[in-house]
Structures are given as structure tokens and as C-alpha cells.
Design a protein that fits this description.
alpha/beta; 7-stranded parallel sheet; 2 domains; Alpha/beta knot; 10 strands
Amino acid sequence: MSRKRFEIRICESCGLRYPFVDGHPHGARCPVCTGGTRVVLSRELILEPDLTVYPSLDGRGESAVLLDNIRSAWNVGSILRSAEGFGFAHAYLCGITPTPENDAVQKTSLGAEDSVTWSHHKDAVKLVRGLRKEGWKIYALEQDAKAVPISNAETSTPRRVLIVGSEVTGVDSSLLDLSDEIFHIPMFGGRKSFNAAIAFGIAAYAVSVSR
């Protein structure tokens, strides 16, 4: 797999915090005010060489999780740990989702990345289109008008992917359009949603027992 340096920078002039990847047209200057910037986070992305080739799940069952633009490394690590516990074999880490090379991911995953294989993908929509062609069923976890309660999940299919989206904006609408089913977790309190890692744990259990 190819590698590419990824940074989070903060502008010393206007305070903008933004992601920076090698080859950015502004260079290291702020894209808003062109001021000088400083690095606050640096890591290396592992980029897939070919989106038409998918990692082997080694015959361990074919449940996978897709994390699209999850911001929190702690959430990613927690989700990987839960994924391992529920028998998920692979994690597709998309967009700005931190990978297990991030120290904070490793602190919360507690080594789960050694059992749950993972790959990084820049474009989740392109990835899911490819997975559908390969025969995967796509399930999204989102509060949506078309969503059914997770307790009604019927996912007894040989190959399934569960999508969890951004903590702020949720699952990309284009991914919802590509999903075979959308699930939501009923809420009984005043809040409208659970933390992403908690929500995945609930949904992963429901998906696992409905096989």
C-alpha cells in the first residue's frame, strides 16, 4: 500500500484548524487568509492501491464495519475493540477517520487491530459501490425517515457491511442511498443519538444475533 503524510494545522493568524495533505495547492499556508500555520497532529495514511481489490477475511465470517469521517480516535479504537468482540473481521476506515497507527486509537482498541484487519479509503461512496458489485449487503446506522429499529434487523446474509458515519453530520446521504437497509436505535431520553462508539456496540450486537 502507498503511504501519504497527513497533518492537522492551525493558522497562526486567523485560527483556522484544517486538514493538510502533501500536495495541497496552498502549501503550508492557510487556505483562508494565507497566513503561516503550525502542525498540531501528524500521521501517515495508508492508501489502498486498488479499490476493486478487497482484503481477504480469512474465512472468519464476513461482517465488516465501515467508519466514514469519524473524527475521534478514541471512538475508532473503541469501535475496533467492540468489532473484535462481536466477530467483525474487517474495518474500512474512510475519509478523515484515524487509523490504528494513531496512538489514541491503539490506547482504546487494546490490540483489537491485530485481530480485525483494516484498510484506509479516501472515498467511502466509491468503496461501497465496489462492495455492492462484489455482492456485499450494505447496512447504515442513522436516524433517518427510512430507518427501521435496530431490533428489527434482518441481516442473515453471507456478506454484510455496517456503516457508522461522522459524529457531527451522520452518514453521508449518498451512502444512505446505496444502503440496502437503514437502522436506527430508538431513544427514550431527551437526547437524539448515542455516542458513535456506543451506537456501534448496540448495532453490532443486533447484527450479530440476527445472523
